[in-house]
Amino acid sequence: MSGTNWEVEPLRAVGPLELGVAPEAMRAKLEAVAGFDGFSSHAQNFAQFEDGRSVQFFVAEGAVEAIEVWYPGTSADQVTLNGVALFGLDREAVAWEPRLADISFTWDGGGWVSRAHSIGLTDEGAGVVAVLVAVDGYYDFLDEL
User: What CA–CA distance (Å, rounded) separates 72 from 117?
Assistant: First the structure.
């Protein structure tokens, strides 16, 4: 994955990884990515890469419903949205970046959420460290009951 950008396609994909596919197809896609270092011995839905990046996917009813990409802080690779590099992006930048305005992110205390687009950005204080992309109706993006 060195030096590549994966563009978020809301409600559909992140880079080459598509929502709605069977878990076996997702594993095959991950294995084909440059720098793939294997799946966790504890979870076959958690892929690790040589640069420290990791990808976890979540399955319901036989199909991938969410994909989360974690950034180790040392990779040249990026996840982008509307051409904006997300990893390391600070709170102010997410709030004021004009290319993200149509996504309508709101701060929820631990990151940014766009319920309408099923995108979550985890911010642990030093900028975005993880990007979650999901299908419409994914539980993380439902309004509180």
Answer: 25
